[in-house]
Specification:
This protein folds into three domains: 112 residues, DNA Polymerase III, Chain A, domain 2; 120 residues, DNA Polymerase III, subunit A, domain 2 (DNA Polymerase III, Chain A, domain 2); 113 residues, Roll (DNA Polymerase III, Chain A, domain 2). By secondary structure, it is of the alpha+beta class. The protein is built from six helices and 26 strands. Helix 1 runs antiparallel to helix 2 and helix 5 packs antiparallel against helix 6.
């Protein structure tokens, strides 16, 4: 292989594909990045065996070829270069890297050992704008479980109907749901995508409206966006019926300012962290919401205005769990819905139907 490529383009491409590298690879070859140079471009590929990412960058190809180089080493090396880089392999299996006065040689890995990447070509296709999908993923990531004993909950549920796509995550304490309206051309689909995959996708997706096409079939997903292709194995099994967790009605509803509530919770969290249980209390009464926190060394409270319908109620939450949710509210106003101090609390935007959050309260004895 002999080619010339811009250092910035190569760095950007390597930053994308090396997200598929595992922290501890099962085989040495899985630490590598495959470079496939042909017809005026280089296709870069990395895989950990279940997640694979490929992207294509322009290049001047003097001699076509394929080779595998250590992924992280190559990325760090190229990141420090500027201008055009020339890559040239020789018969001894070494690759020379030249950029202006810089010269280096890297031993190539055995290209024959690099695994084939499974792509889903036929199946159900769901297309969403990249910026919308990125926002949806960001809005559920905090609620994905980290306990590997509940493997399905370490993923996100993608539930699609003819006119709506829902992304759902829950960890036993919180539930996050993001909704996209559209015409999806399927009568119904439920798949569970690994949380790590969704996290890496959100880092790669652009902030523009260009499409991301996701194809699902036989336990696999392939997502194509821009010059990048991501393929992964899906999590298999029956995801929790989250609809059964959502209360059908509520006895208390309060419309509040997102910014005012966030500011008050941030202030109360400073005290809550000093306590044993990281608790904050919310009291809904009259037309105000009073948020308090107590610890041995300090206590604090703040009152904010609220439009409350229904019975007065006082309820306690883990400050972090409530904080994570409020930070992901994107509307100026939100509605907090409750039934009792031991029942799930639901938070939705005041105007749209784009998302829903649920958090369990903490039972207190006073």
């Amino acid at each position: 292989m002999h080619c010339t490529v811009n250092a910035t383009s190569l760095t950007d491409g390597l930053n994308i594909v090396t997200r598929a590298l595992a922290a501890r690879a099962a085989r040495e070859i899985l630490n590598g990045v495959l470079l496939d140079a042909r017809e005026g471009e280089i296709t870069l590929s990395c895989t950990d065996g279940s997640l694979s990412i490929q992207t294509t960058i322009p290049a001047e190809i003097q001699a076509e070829g394929r080779l595998v180089l250590p992924g992280r080493l190559l990325t760090e090396m190229v990141r420090k270069l500027m201008g055009d880089i020339t890559l040239k392999s020789n018969e001894s299996g070494r690759v020379s890297i030249q950029c202006l006065s810089y010269r280096a040689n890297i031993a190539a890995m055995n290209e024959a050992e690099f695994p084939d990447i499974t792509e889903t070509v036929d199946g159900t296709v769901i297309t969403l704008p990249q910026n919308q999908l990125k926002r949806m993923i960001s809005g559920v990531m905090f609620a994905i479980a980290t306990d590997e004993n509940r493997q399905l909950l370490t993923g996100t549920l993608l539930e699609v109907s003819p006119v709506e796509a829902r992304l759902v995550a829950l960890d036993g304490f919180r539930l996050a749901l993001q909704v996209a309206q559209g015409e999806f051309g399927t009568e119904g689909m439920r798949v569970v995508i690994p949380g790590r995959v969704m996290n890496e996708m959100s880092r790669i997706l652009s902030d523009e409206e260009e499409p991301c096409a996701m194809t699902f079939d036989n336990g696999h997903m392939t997502a194509v966006f821009g010059q990048t292709k991501l393929s992964t194995v899906l999590l298999m099994g029956d995801y929790i019926d989250y609809q059964r967790i959502l209360p059908a009605s509520f006895t208390t509803e309060a419309k509040v300012s997102r910014e005012d509530t966030m500011t008050a919770i941030d202030r109360m969290s400073l005290i809550a962290r000093e306590g044993k249980n990281n608790l904050i209390r919310l009291k809904f009464a009259g037309q105000s919401l009073t948020i308090t926190s107590n610890a041995e060394i300090s206590d604090a409270q703040q009152e904010i205005s609220a439009d409350i319908v229904g019975a007065d109620l006082e309820i306690a939450f883990n400050a972090k769990y409530l904080n994570d949710i409020i930070r992901n509210v994107t509307d100026d106003e939100m509605i907090i819905k409750l039934n009792s101090n031991v029942s799930p609390c639901v938070i939705v935007p005041a105007e749209s139907r784009d998302y829903l959050f649920l958090v369990l309260p903490v039972r207190t004895f006073q």
